[in-house]
Structure formats: structure tokens, C-alpha cells
Write a structure and sequence with these properties.
heterodimer; A: mainly beta; Immunoglobulin-like; seven-stranded mixed β-sheet; four-stranded antiparallel β-sheet; 11 strands; globular; B: mainly beta; six-stranded mixed β-sheet; 0% helix
């Protein structure tokens, strides 16, 4: 059972470039999330989804977009990368109240 | 709105000593409370959770936390820490829905 899988693990972007962080889960969870983690700030919710075709904004959605065409996949897109988006990104899914996290994607924008 | 405050950003402690990581929350509704642990370069893993029932909850590796409604706290304790407990610990709160709010984290550093 793979759980929550994120790719890529590491990426360096130039300012203004775009990219997509991929996330897939094989646990048939309806709820999925994207968080970013910055030092001393804990995790901030970017976007979440309660099921295929349904997404909503979290605490810090600006500069990001998501889609949820299937239960398994929840990609996060950065359209115009900015240095403020340098962070560690975690995808997660939930069963009941327990969150299952991916291993993280380290993104640096230069 | 919910919020979580972890009162210590770093806690250094010697091996085999007791430790307490403090967490306070605010919420206007019934809450579920969690502690997650993050080892270097990994994602977060659930350590323990309080949903209802007994206010004292335990993990399989010796940690425990007590839900105190009157003080709105959910402090994490371990009577004797090991080097392998060195990690970052996050307190989190969730309402009866599905959105979870995390604290800023407490870095536990266990010294030999």
C-alpha cells in the first residue's frame, strides 16, 4: 500500500516559471489537502478537496491552483513562481480525522 | 475560528529525562486534538489523538497527552526520552468537519 505519493521530491524553479506538483493516493480517501511548511510557521493549508470535482481555498491559496478530476489525484499548480513560494509542500488525505501525509516536495524559487 | 499555540519553539533535554511539550488551542466548537511527529526530511506521522472519551491518550512509544477542556490545553509528555525521540512535534486541532489547523511546531532535541 503506497499511501500518499508526491512528485517531484526536489525542484528548483526560476521566477515566473510554472510547474505542477503531483499527488496521488491509493486509499480511496475523499478528502485531500495541500499544505506548505515554512520554518517556525507550522503547516498552512493551501487548498483542499472533499471529493472529485470539488475544491476549495485554504488559508494561503494565492499563487496556486488545484484540480481534482479523480479521487486518486490532486495536483497543485504554480503558475508564476515567486521567491515567496520557496517552501516544503505536503500533500495529504484523510480517513475520518486522521491525516496521512506524503513525504514532501522541496521547492526553491530563484 | 480555531487556532493552536505551541508555547515552546525548541526544547532541549537530556536522554532519560522527562519532557513536556505544551499546546493550547482555541475553538468555538467541539474539537478533536492531535499530536504529529516529523523526523528530518519526512512527512508528518500521527503520534496520538483525542476524539472523545478518556481525556488521557497514549501512543505506542510512551508518549501521552491529556485533554484539559477548562484550560484548553493538550500537552504532550513522556517520562523518559530517548535519542530517537529527537524530532519536530506538531499539535493540531480539527473541528467536526475536516479542516485541521496546525501549531508552529516544537523541536525536541534529546542530548546524550
Amino acid at each position: 500500500n503506497a499511501g500518499v505519493t508526491q512528485t517531484p521530491k526536489f525542484r528548483i524553479l526560476k521566477i515566473g516559471q510554472s510547474m505542477t506538483l503531483q499527488c496521488t493516493q491509493d486509499m480511496n480517501h475523499n478528502y485531500m489537502y495541500w499544505y506548505r511548511q515554512d520554518p517556525g510557521m507550522g503547516l498552512k493549508l493551501i487548498y483542499y478537496s472533499v471529493g472529485a470535482g470539488i475544491t476549495d481555498k485554504g488559508e494561503v491559496p494565492n499563487g496556486y491552483n488545484v484540480s481534482r478530476s479523480t479521487t486518486e489525484d490532486f495536483p497543485l499548480r504554480l503558475e508564476l513562481a515567486a521567491p515567496s513560494q520557496t517552501s516544503v509542500y505536503f500533500c495529504a488525505s484523510t480517513l475520518g480525522n486522521t491525516i496521512y501525509f506524503g513525504e514532501g516536495s522541496w521547492l526553491t524559487v530563484v | 475560528a480555531q487556532s493552536v499555540t505551541q508555547l515552546d519553539s525548541q526544547v532541549p533535554v537530556f536522554e532519560e529525562a522527562p519532557v513536556e511539550l505544551r499546546c493550547n488551542y482555541s475553538s468555538s466548537v467541539s474539537v478533536y486534538l492531535f499530536w504529529y511527529v516529523q523526523y528530518p526530511n519526512q512527512g508528518l506521522q500521527l503520534l496520538l489523538k483525542y476524539l472523545s472519551g478518556s481525556t488521557l491518550v497514549e501512543s505506542i512509544n510512551g508518549f501521552e497527552a491529556e485533554f484539559n477542556k477548562s484550560q484548553t490545553s493538550f500537552h504532550l509528555r513522556k517520562p523518559s526520552v530517548h535519542i530517537s525521540d529527537t524530532a519536530e512535534y506538531f499539535c493540531a486541532v480539527s473541528d467536526e468537519g475536516f479542516k485541521t489547523i496546525f501549531g508552529a511546531g516544537t523541536r525536541l532535541f534529546v542530548k546524550a
